[in-house]
DNA sequence: ACGATAGACC
């Protein structure tokens, strides 16, 4: 029980007879005084004084005091790991408590390797790790990320009998998730006998990390069904993010509703995620409303608002928000600038975009990444400045990637410049990515130019390379459920009704002057077959389904994985008049809001 | 003394 050496008790000034319970109680009292001295420190200066006092009174030899010194110095906001290390080194035989806190301090400072080295030292000295050691170590492995070390540490914790510790298990789910090992995350989760909110949260985050959005929502549903419905910010952030990616506005709004009901305030992260969800699910006005009322905006809040406006083609407003950000003295980073440049390119603001690009380099000292170059190629290309775009690529200080050439190629297709298109395609195909949709774009361009011989050549090449196109799909949410439509798919229920509706729609549209644009349909030689394929594009199926299952006058929202074809664009404009519906489509790049026969993109896309 | 969250070129 008495570990302290009796020698140091000679320092005590209080006479022993005043303490009927003996020297042990006296010592305890002094320890308490020291700890409260440490706890009162508000900065490193005060702390150093407390440290000096403790040394002076010989209380450093109390491991209780020494441990407290290390812990406080390592973990306080004002702390210093250098100073904590110097104290730590003075401890005669540090135990797991001191080691744990040193490890935590290093993790807090993001000196993750240092944390792992500390653990090595701990093992070498024969100090036995405890249940508090492993969660911290696993966090270090998660943030590095370091799978090998993580697995080793997993093994160690298992050997020491901590495999049933819920904190260790939660940390393991998190660590495997951050290392991209989703299977291992799930395996740990499955084996758990008791789960806490943190376990669910870590599992959802692991799926979000890999972009497995549907799974995120499924797990969230399961979590709620199991009665684990406590409102947890980190869970909701991932759920909202999943809604953003899937375009599930209703579910997102539903989540927002539960936020409002169950929380007294939203933190910046949650609020930013919510705004992002609203903007990217087609409810830009609501996102903007929340953004304007936000009490504390940071760089990220501005960033999501700028790219949200950009996606809707509101270039001028995006630039306004950007200058507001600068007025607030928030320093833009490279990602913010990507948003700004997209805003310019989608709104056709060529001069402004080029100016922003220069400003980014000169005023904010940001070295452009390949993404920024991509934005400029898009900016020039969309505006029909194809030669400039090509020159721009040639003068880049880095190797252009496939996306750049693809951007140029689609611009060539839009502006029907076959010669430049050939150049872009040559460069793109030389990268040997064997991306079927690249060949399709090229072939469509030839088809538009009526160069049938070339179309056939591309087609042959595709066959010989065994390339098949990833099918385009359209998602539509009806009554909080997301439905997926794939072109020409006839396998889903109610299929009959949808195709009847398609037939009816087309018949009505023709009265208004619509005629199908079959020039870009790659397959099917005869006109009838082409028309068939065109009319069963996934977007049209999704529209038909929505018109059947939603009430008259309500908005239709569709999310696509590819760019909209020009026929679907024209078609949807007609639908918006004939059926008096507002139809909002998020394609791969941006939003199109169809109303009264016209689209918000003003046919610039 | 334990888990933890956001934005990006086609």
From TrEMBL:
GO terms for molecular function: RNA binding; zinc ion binding. The keyword Repeat applies. Gene3D superfamilies: Tetratricopeptide repeat domain (1.25.40.10). GO terms for biological process: RNA modification. PPR repeats lie at residues 95-129, 196-230, 298-332. The keyword Repeat applies. Residues 513-605 form the DYW domain. Keywords: Repeat. It comes from the Eukaryota. InterPro entries: DYW_dom, E_motif, PPR_At4g14850-like_plant, PPR_rpt, TPR-like_helical_dom_sf. Belongs to the PPR family. PCMP-H subfamily. This is DYW domain-containing protein. It comes from Camellia sinensis var. sinensis.
């Amino acid at each position: 029980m008495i570990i302290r050496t009796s020698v140091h008790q000679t320092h005590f000034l209080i006479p022993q007879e005043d303490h009927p319970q003996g020297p042990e109680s006296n010592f305890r009292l002094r320890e308490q005084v020291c700890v409260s001295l440490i706890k009162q420190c508000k900065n490193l200066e005060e702390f150093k004084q407390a440290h000096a006092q403790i040394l002076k009174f010989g209380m450093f030899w109390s491991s209780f005091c020494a441990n407290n010194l290390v812990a406080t110095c390592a973990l306080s906001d004002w702390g210093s790991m250098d100073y904590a290390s110097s104290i730590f080194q003075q401890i005669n035989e540090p135990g797991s408590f001191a080691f744990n806190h040193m490890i935590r301090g290093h993790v807090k400072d993001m000196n993750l390797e240092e944390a792992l080295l500390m653990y090595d030292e701990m093992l070498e000295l024969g100090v036995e790790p405890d249940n508090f050691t492993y969660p911290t170590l696993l966090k270090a492995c998660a943030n590095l990320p370091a799978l090998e070390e993580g697995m080793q540490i997993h093994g160690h914790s298992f050997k020491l009998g901590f495999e049933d510790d819920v904190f260790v298990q939660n940390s393991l789910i998190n660590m495997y998730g951050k290392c991209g090992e989703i299977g291992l995350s799930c395996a740990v989760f499955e084996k758990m006998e008791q789960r806490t909110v943190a376990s669910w949260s870590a599992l959802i985050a692991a799926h979000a990390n890999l972009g497995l959005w549907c799974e995120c929502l499924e797990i969230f549903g399961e979590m709620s069904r199991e009665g684990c419905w406590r409102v947890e910010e980190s869970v909701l952030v991932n759920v909202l993010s999943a809604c953003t990616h899937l375009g599930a506005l209703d579910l997102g709004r539903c989540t927002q509703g539960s936020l409002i009901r169950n929380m007294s305030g939203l933190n910046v992260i949650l609020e930013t995620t919510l705004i992002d969800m609203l903007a990217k699910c087609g409810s830009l006005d609501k996102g903007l409303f929340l953004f304007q009322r936000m009490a504390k905006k940071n760089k990220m809040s501005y960033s999501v608002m700028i790219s949200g406006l950009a996606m809707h083609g509101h270039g001028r407003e995006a630039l306004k928000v950007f200058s507001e950000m600068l007025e607030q003295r928030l320093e833009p980073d490279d990602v913010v600038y990507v948003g700004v440049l997209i805003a310019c390119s989608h709104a056709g603001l060529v001069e402004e975009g080029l100016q922003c690009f220069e400003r980014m380099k000169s005023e904010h000292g940001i070295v452009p990444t390949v993404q920024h170059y991509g934005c400029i190629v898009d900016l020039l290309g969309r505006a029909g400045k194809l030669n400039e775009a090509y020159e721009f690529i040639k003068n880049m200080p880095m190797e252009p990637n496939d996306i750049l050439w693809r951007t140029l190629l689609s611009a060539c297709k839009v502006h029907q410049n076959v010669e430049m298109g050939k150049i872009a395609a040559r460069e793109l195909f030389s990268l040997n990515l064997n991306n079927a949709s690249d060949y399709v774009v090229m072939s469509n361009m030839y088809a538009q130019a009526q160069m049938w011989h070339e179309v056939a050549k591309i087609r042959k090449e595709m066959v010989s390379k065994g390339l098949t196109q990833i099918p385009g799909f359209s998602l539509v949410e009806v009554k909080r459920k997301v439905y997926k439509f794939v072109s020409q798919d006839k396998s889903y229920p109610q299929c009959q009704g949808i195709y009847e509706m398609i037939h009816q729609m087309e018949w009505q549209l023709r009265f208004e002057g619509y005629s199908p644009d079959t020039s870009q349909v790659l397959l099917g030689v005869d006109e009838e077959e082409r028309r068939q394929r065109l009319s069963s594009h996934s977007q049209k199926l999704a529209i038909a389904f929505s018109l059947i299952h939603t009430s008259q006058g309500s908005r239709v929202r569709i999310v696509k994985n590819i760019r909209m074809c020009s026929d679907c664009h024209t078609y949807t404009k007609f639908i918006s008049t004939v059926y008096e519906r507002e139809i909002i489509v998020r394609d791969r790049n941006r939003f199109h809001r169809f109303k009264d026969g016209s689209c918000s993109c003003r046919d610039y896309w």
